[in-house]
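Troubleshooting log. The previous structure file for this entry was overwritten by mistake, so regenerating from the original sequence record. Sequence copied from the archived sheet and checked twice against the printout by T.R.
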Amino acid sequence: MPDPIAPDDATLHADHVLVTAVLAGTPGAFEQLVRSYQGLCWHIVDRMVRHPDDTRELCQETFLRVHQSLHQYRGERPLKAWIAQVAYSVAKRHLERRRIPIADNGPDGQMHAAAEQVSDGFDLETHTSTQEGHALLHAAIEALPPLQRTLLTLYHLEEMPIAEIASVTAIAEGTIKSHLFRSRRQLRQILHARMGVTA
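Regenerated output below.
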């Protein structure tokens, strides 16, 4: 009996099976890939560009590129991270063409020193558990620059590890932690102003 496949290996194995089926032209295989990852693609692109028509078009472009480049996927990391990287790259190029800055590096133009922890001890989820709080949280996230919105989405909504986010965005792990730390601090300040949440 072969050894059971570990969870991470099981994911990579399932990814390999799906990719092999797509490359072989198996009917329905690419449609299955799109169904599996269209939500991920939408989350990333929409958080970056914030325009539904552009998001739809860029998601289509993302999956076109995925289809064209799938033969380059080596299976060394989850397909989810590979597709997320394509989506992020497509959205980033779109913003660059429009000359829209993707990040706010602070008043001095420099990133603050990387925080060693992402959390600042403030429980956003608890303070925004009501319907009103949830709506305010999403409105506050919308006020952040594109990169910080996207990093929050990948970390909290897609539950990607920092190392995986680094591979998706080509941003150093320490810088990602700093962005997340600053984003949470900004959200706390916005919520404090609107809801009276204690800092």
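The chain has a mean pLDDT of 82. Archived copy saved in two places this time.
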